[in-house]
Design a protein that fits this description.
By secondary structure, this protein is an alpha/beta fold. The protein has a single domain, classed as Rossmann fold (3-Layer(aba) Sandwich), CATH 3.40.50. Helix content is 37%, strand content 19%. The chain is built from 7 helices and 7 strands, in the order H-E-H-H-E-H-H-E-E-H-E-E-H-E. Strand 6, helix 7 and strand 7 form a beta-alpha-beta unit. Helix 3 packs parallel to helix 5 and helix 6 packs parallel to helix 7. InterPro entries: ComF/GntX_DNA_util-trans (IPR051910), PRTase-like (IPR029057), PRTase_dom (IPR000836). This is Amidophosphoribosyltransferase. GO terms for molecular function: glycosyltransferase activity. Keywords: Glycosyltransferase, Transferase.
Length: 191
Amino acid sequence: MPLTDHNFLDENTVDRIFYGRIAIKKAASFVFFTKNGIVKNLLHSLKYKNQEQIGGFFGDWYGAHLKKEMGLGKIDVVIPVPLHPKKLKKRGYNQVALFAQKIAEAIGAEYRDDLLLKTLNTKTQTKKDRLLRWENSKEAFQVNPMAKVHFGHVLLVDDVITTGATIESCAKALLLLKPKDISVLSMAVVP
């Protein structure tokens, strides 16, 4: 398994994706996603072949690591990047939800999948370049208008970070909740 060795203490390549774009306290990914690797096959099975338990496996594994590492600091809430309701209905589950739930459980944080909404039903971004990903994501997320809560430190969780456009859009929306800090974790990152 191509582990990244990212932690929440040292600067890494995922941190650098967001420099100058959005105020992210710390970012990290669990594994590297390559075009022809095991991670691609696992995440493809997770998203498209009804293998939701893969997210739980990754969450248990990386959650145990985070519990020991302590570099993340106190996280108040873990929020998965949401799916559009139509895509959620079609797939039957959010591919990042179980991973995020297991991370929240391991670090003793609250899990909330009701605070952030995906309002635009965009097609998969896997074949799009950096500019198209950014354009498709920039207005795709909003805070649930029923959410009148404030948190200290939010951990925003996604499956794969390529350009960071999705995370940037989600973080901009979450800033309306006035969290003290936003950190980012993904299952995988494209090197």
